[in-house]
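Milestone M4 deliverable, item 7.
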Amino acid sequence: SKKDDVRPPVDIKIESTIASGDPLRLQLPYPIEGATISDEFANVIKDRSLTIEQLMGKRLELMSSSQSQQLFSITIELVNAKHRQTRSFHYQVLQRPVIVSLGALTDEVTALLSSEPKQDLTARLMIQTKNHVIRQLDIKRYNGQMGPDRNISRHYKLVPEQNLGAYEFLAVRAISLADLSIEPIALIPSAYDDRLGWQFEMTEQMLDGDPWLIYPTIDSSFKCRPSFFSRDMFESVDVSALKPATTMGEASKNFHPRFNSLAFEPVVSAMANDPMNPGWDYMSTTKSEFSHLPLASLEAWRGIVSNSQALAMAVLRLEIDHFFAERLSNEMSVLWESIRNTDWVNAINSYRSWMMTLVRLPEEHVNSMLIDRLSRLGSVIPIFEDFTEELVVDTSGGNKMPPLAASYQILHMSLRRNHGESNWPEHIAGALVNWFKSNAAHFGWLDFSNHP
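Output delivered:
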C-alpha cells in the first residue's frame, strides 16, 4: 500500500513468470485518484494553510484513476467575505498526472484577497472532481497575527497560526509614521506563551503620542499584518478640532480608521499637481523601505489610489515600473483605465516642467526619456501601449488630446482579443446600454456600426 508521504508511481510494470519463451511485460496505470502538493525538493506538503509567499515553488499534482479523460476543477474563493467571489480553473487528466504550479496562481490569489479592504481574509483553494472535493488549502497573507493586548496596557502580542516548529526567525520593528527619518526600533519579545505567542512591550520613545507602525522585517519568518500603535489610539477623536494636514506626517497623526478616515485627502490633493511637494519624498521612502509589506496595509497608499490625479502623478514622480504597477492592480484593485486622459496630460506636463528645472536638457530629450519609461508600462497601463507619444509630445505645447475615437477602437479590439470568451458583457449589458443612452450627447465620436 502507498504511504501518505510518498508520491505514487505513474504506472506498474508486471514481469512475466513464464520460464521459457520471450518475456511478457504488462504496464498498467497506477489506480489512484487524488491531488498532492509538494515543494521544489519533492517533499509532500500536508499543511492545511499557507501564505501567499509560501505558494512559490509549490506544485500541485493531479492524478486520475480513470482509464478515460477525467476533469479536475480548481476553485479559489474568499471565505467569510462580504461578497462571494471565486476564480476557477479546469484541467483534463488522462493516465499520467498533470502538474500545476501553485506559484503561478499568486496574482489571482492576491487580487482576490485585495478585492475587499479587510487584511485578514482567507482564500480557500479547493480541488475537486465531478464527485467530491479531494483537497482543500487555505491561503492567507500572514502566518501570524499581531495586535494590542487588551489585558496589559502598552503591550502587543503576536500569535502564530501554525506549529512553531515550522518557523526559525522572528524580527519585528516599529517606525514613526509621523517622521519616517527616525530610525526604526527593534522590538524584542518580553515573554512567550505556547498558547498566546509572543508579547512585546512598547518602548518609552513610542509613547510620544505619534502613530507608529509595527511590522515584520523582510527577513522575518513570521509575516504578520502590520499593526498600528498610538498612545491615545483608543480615545475618541474630535475631528472638528483638528487642523487640516499639510504633510503626510501630519495626516498620519490625524488619521483614525473610525473617526477620521479621510485625513490624507487634503495632502494628496495638494500633491496631485505638484511634483515638488514633500509628500512625494514620504511616499518614495514608503515605497522603498516597506516594499515587502502589502500596499493595502499602508493608509498613505490608500490615499494616493483614491485620487486619480495623484495616482497619475505617482507613476511619474515615484518612477513606478511594470512590477509595481501590477502590484497596485492586484493589491489595491487599481483600474488604470479609469484615469482620465486629462489627468495623464496634466501629470506629464507638471512633471516635465519640474524635470527641466533639475537638469539642463532640451525638452526633446526629456520627452524622449518620458516616452521610453512610460511605454514600458503598456502591458499594465493600456493607454501607454498605443498613445504614449501623443500624451507626451502632442500635449507639451498646447491642449491637444489623443484621438478619443481611435482610443475607443483600440481598447475595444483589445477587450475582444483578450477577453472574448468572458461573460462580463452579458452581466452588465443592460446597465451599460442604459448608461450610454443617458449620456449619448457626450459620445458622438463613437461609431458602433461595425461592432456587435
